[in-house]
């Protein structure tokens, strides 16, 4: 079960007795550095942070095993690159010219 750190830190008295059954993983954006947060993180099966700085801060502040604290940095999903376009074929200056009918001409000569 994934819990936000603010929720987990607000109710350690509910989380701690059920931690063995639920195996909670707590997501921490910024540490609160409170006793309630310490109890919640100690009971968690794992901790996920959004930065390496937050991970180091939690490990310095609380006696957590380093292998239970992981970083999942937020990042955009990379877009697939489109293949390069073919260069447009040359066309005449007149859009109605018989030479250009059916050819690709970009930008159209009447827009330039």
How would you describe this structure to a colleague?
With 112 residues, the protein is of the alpha/beta class. It contains 4 helices and 4 strands. It has helices spanning 5-10, 12-22, 35-43, 52-61; strands spanning 2-4, 25-28, 46-49, 69-71. Strand 2, helix 3 and strand 3 form a beta-alpha-beta unit. The model has no long low-confidence stretch (mean pLDDT 83).
If you compute it from the alpha carbons, what radius of gyration comes out, rounded to the nearest whole angstrom? 29 Å
Q: What does the overall shape look like?
A: elongated
Helix/strand structural class: alpha/beta
Mean pLDDT metric: 83
Order of helices and strands: EHHEHEHE
As residue ranges, the low-confidence spans are: none
Strand content: 5-15%
Main attributes of the structure:
32% helix, alpha/beta, four-stranded parallel β-sheet, single chain, 112 residues, 4 strands
Q: Can I get a quick summary?
A:
The chain has a domain at 2-71.
How would the blueprint of this fold be written?
Blueprint: E1 2-4, H1 5-10, H2 12-22, E2 25-28, H3 35-43, E3 46-49, H4 52-61, E4 69-71
Parallel strand pairs: 1-2, 2-3, 3-4
Helix pairs in contact: 2-3
